[in-house]
Amino acid sequence: xxxxxxxxxxxxxxxxxxxxxxxxxxxxxxxxxxxxxxxxxxxxxxxxxxxxxxxxxxxxxxxxxxxxxxxxxxxxxxxxxxxxxxxxxxxxxxxxxxxxxxxxxxxxxxxxxxxxxxxxxxxxxxxxxxxxxxxxxxxxxxxxxxxxxxxxxxxxxxxxxxxxxxxxxxxxxxxxxxxxxxxxxxxxxxxxxxxxxxxxxxxxxxxxxxxxxxxxxxxxxxxxxxxxxxxxxxxxxxxxxxxxxxxxxxxxxxxxxxxxxxxxxxxxxxxxxxxxxxxxxxxxxxxxxxxxxxxxxxxxxxxxxxxxxxxxxxxxxxxxxxxxxxxxxxxxxxxxxxxxxxxxxxxxxxxxxxxxxxxxxxxxxxxxxxxxxxxxxxxxxxxxxxxxxxxxxxxxxxxxxxxxxxxxxxxxxxxxxxxxxxxxxxxxxxxxxxxxxxxxxxxxxxxxxxxxxxxxxxxxxxxxxxxxxxxxxxxxxxxxxxxxxxxxxxxxxxxxxxxxxxxxxxxxxxxxxxxxxxxxxxxxxxxxxxxxxxxxxxxxxxxxxxxxxxxxxxxxxxxxxxxxxxxxxxxxxxxxxxxxxxxxxxxxxxxxxxxxxxxxxxxxxxxxxxxxxxxxxxxxxxxxxxxxxxxxxxxxxxxxxxxxxxxxxxxxxxxxxxxxxxxxxxxxxxxxxxxxxxxxxxxxxxxxxxxxxxxxxxxxxxxxxxxxxxxxxxxxxxxxxxxxxxxxxxxxxxxxxxxxxxxxx
Length: 745
Ligand code: ADP
Ligand code: ZN
Fold this sequence. Notes:
The chain is 32% helix and 22% strand. The chain is α/β, with parallel strands linked by helices. It has a seven-stranded parallel β-sheet, with helices on both faces.
């Protein structure tokens, strides 16, 4: 009898990536009898503190003196680990965005997996009768404004509210709710996490249409590459209503027929029962991952995917990290959406990471949009992506007729009343409402008026903590800072010159709603924005009522701009096309064009013809013109010209460095030191350092610089020269590195 091969010795040491901005991994010892594999989540002691991390490598020995190596404290999941390709993706994310491996891994894991076994979540609920609580909101608002805000939010939510959500929504710490508990107004309760699934709407089942010629061509091209098992990126440029979803569904069929899995990314905002219904009706094995999911539900979906019980993941940005096996396809729908960029560390872009994951796992990537970004269309033109086009609306819908309404031509009285609804728009609304059709009014600004101004001295009410003016919210009777959530009561008089009363300047959705109700008293009007959607389930309720035609006019912010497909909407009014046009950002025109085009795309999706009225003070602006003429190509041509001259993407790659400190000097000095090694780099240009557009937020002074690199090599050199957050930040000055920034404010 021969000796059996001896088993390799069990790993005695592991390398752990910690969720901290540190550019290296740490060695820990594996206690006897414990099984650890790469991809396992572990808890370890780091400088006396229990810290979570992920095992990235195992070894039998270590070079360190064994006595100095601490043991792993616990392994959080033993039966299932993070798949190997996701570890590789995390490495690439860290390299691309200048974060640590631990931070990248942390962004990829559902939080329940980080805290396994914890099934009860802290909530707060009302402990006092509703009317007393409402009274307390008023009494607290002067002296204890955060407490007042917290209590009001719980009241509005109308159910026990997870404390994490409460803190996020009110931008507060634990202390306000804790004090309210002490005073007997709120009570903390541990509740089992509720399974809040995004239920597919059965009336949204996607009918399996006979594909038209363009759709068929697109499906064939992609399915061919899927069958070949290769990686390639396609850009599907299809006008609004051209049936992109049906194309995705057919490609999915091809992927599933091979037994492979797929991930479909959609912007959070269009992740509605409508979207889910379209996918779920055709694929029974869909896992839906959206931000409203409780941790428990997210964790359950993650397990289903890991075990292969679900093969198609549909979700927002982070669904890209769904642990599916044998990935064949990633769809990024509405690839131009800025919500695919995460706005906290790690600041990754899901589109870029999708392509990286496709490369690692030999999967096909399909980017879809009616208004592809200049970066994507640029790559398609250079042959980096393969371009597919759907030039016409599918089925019965036709592209809407678009009218540009020059607001300069409106009589002065119309403007003085505050709300500008042009005669053209009013006449059309009347007509459509009479015909029992539905109307969408779009205005990308919430609240009643964005500024409260003294007509005598011109002083506006500013936030005490930020350098922005406060928005007047009439229903709440409050001025609100949209940057830090600080609120205050409307001053009786101007604090500067004592003149009274203050003047409401500009229009928000709340003011628009009031004006429409006054003008059309018979119509049922609803508003959809962050303020009216505070109650749980409100989003689904309003869209459901709109579908059933219980609502005639729906007013909203970008929440209503995309994805909605309602056949009886025959009129869309863009109340102001200009809100984003003067934002100091090189993408102002691109964003305006995209938004106008998307909003316009909501009209005329059924058999009835649609009309869009775009109100503007800048009718000659090229973004407005191109949107009005449905002319993506000419917009791209002009915009590329502008980008080339000014040296912005796609002709340069950007890195933004932001420094924030209580002492302005500190932020300034830090950047002035950081910019030095960049000055002499070839093919690199630096704008700043300079104060950020919003120079102060929450008492922190903000300075930034924008690094432009004109070649991949110079970008890498610039990243290296800047260094890491770990190198730059100090105890009192926070630093943010943002690669391909989506906001420059
Ligand atoms: P997009 O996502 O491109 O804006 P959708 O996928 O929402 O467009 O499709 C618009 C409408 O056209 C939907 O109501 C869809 O059911 C319908 N549709 C899609 N493909 C076809 C087709 N080949 N024939 C008829 N109708 C179609
Ligand atoms: Zn503020």
